[in-house]
Structure formats: C-alpha cells, structure tokens
What does this fold into?
Amino acid sequence: MISLPDSKKLIIYDGHCVLCDYWVRLLLRHDKKEVFYFTELQSETGKSLQKYFGLENQKVDSIILYIPKKAYYLKSTAFFEIIKSLPWYFYGALIFAILPPAITDKMYTIIAKNRYRWFGRKASCGYIDASLIHRFI
It folds into this structure.
C-alpha cells in the first residue's frame, strides 16, 4: 500500500485519455495547497490500488479518488469530492450534485465511454514539468 499523509488525496486516472490529462493539468494549476497527488490506472500503483479496493476484475472506466484512511470514490462522486477541494470558483460545478447519483453517474458513464472518440487517446503519459513530478506516484 502507498503511504500518503492523511491531508493528501490521490487521484487515479486514465493515463491514455486526453480529457483526463487535461483535467490533471487543470488540477495541478489550481491546487496551490498540493492536496492532490496522481497516478495512472495503468501504473503498478494504480493496478495495486484497484486490487486493494476490490476493483481488479472490473473494467474501471472512471477516475478514482482515494482519501487515505477514509474512503475511495468513483465516477461523479469522485468528481464532486475533487471539486470541493478546489478554489471557490469551481463550485459552480457542484450544482449537478443536487441530482441523484444514478443520474450523475449515468452522465459520467456516457462521457467515459466516449472519451477516446470525443477527445482522443494518447500512447503514453504526457510531459510533466520537473517542478511537479513529486506530485506523481
């Protein structure tokens, strides 16, 4: 198991997804308190965490937000939990949190299933600035 301070959160994302890459870069720019750390679903850490969460036999088509010693979240719930840790100007996205999770997860699933077609697929992880490399596990 990885060791993260209790005050940090780990986002496990699809390293081949252009939309996911954009989202990670956006978070890196706006997460001034360095709350979030990152790893790819395809990495050894990502695979071992999926196994730890009991998700290894499922096709995970979602980001996973892991909060040490607390919980892990998938799909729209992960998205809303991430938004809550960002600056106030992102809170507008929380308007969708008033909808039932069945609806927001369905919306998330539609985007996730079409993400490569709509946004593209990368062969590998993109370039990360050396000053941010410590945020990746």
